[in-house]
């Protein structure tokens, strides 16, 4: 079995930038956005309009897990009872 490696951009959201009635106008805008550094652009056809969508290609570094996500964070700790000195 081959292991597939996913792009680090997989699942990143696209933002709608503009809507057009014709593909030619949408494609012209898409090409303008493609000239910008660190940006992807695409044209998506909806029912009766074309939408230009963009997203950044900059990948944020992974953050460390929060301490609260620690497996034993919420478990109660046993406290020792003070001994009575006689």
Account of the 3D structure:
- Strands 1-3-2 form a three-stranded antiparallel beta sheet, covered by helices on one side.
- 6% of the residues are buried.
- It is built from one helix and three strands, in the order E-H-E-E.
- 14% of the residues lie in helices and 23% in strands.
- The chain starts with 14 loop residues before the first strand and ends in a 30-residue tail after the last strand.
- With 86 residues, the protein is α+β, with helices and mostly antiparallel strands.
Shape: rod-shaped
Q: Helix and strand string, N-terminal first?
A: EHEE
Sheet with the most strands, sense and barrel status: 3 strands, antiparallel
Helix content: 10-25%
| Number of DSSP-assigned strands | 3
Question: Helices and strands: which structural class?
Answer: alpha+beta
List descriptors.
single chain, 86 residues, alpha+beta, 3 strands, 23% strand
How would you summarize this macromolecular structure in one to three sentences?
The chain is α+β, with helices and mostly antiparallel strands and 86 residues long.
Helix-strand blueprint:
Elements lengths: L14 E6 L2 H12 L4 E7 L4 E7 L30
Antiparallel strand pairs: 1-3, 2-3
């Amino acid at each position: 079995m081959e292991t597939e490696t996913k792009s680090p951009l997989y699942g990143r959201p696209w933002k709608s930038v503009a809507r057009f009635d014709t593909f030619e106008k949408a494609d012209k805008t898409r090409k303008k956005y493609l000239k910008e550094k660190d940006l992807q652009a695409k044209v998506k056809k909806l029912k009766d309009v074309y939408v230009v969508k963009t997203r950044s290609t900059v990948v944020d570094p992974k953050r460390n897990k929060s301490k609260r996500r620690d497996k034993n964070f919420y478990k109660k700790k046993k406290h020792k009872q003070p001994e009575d000195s006689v």
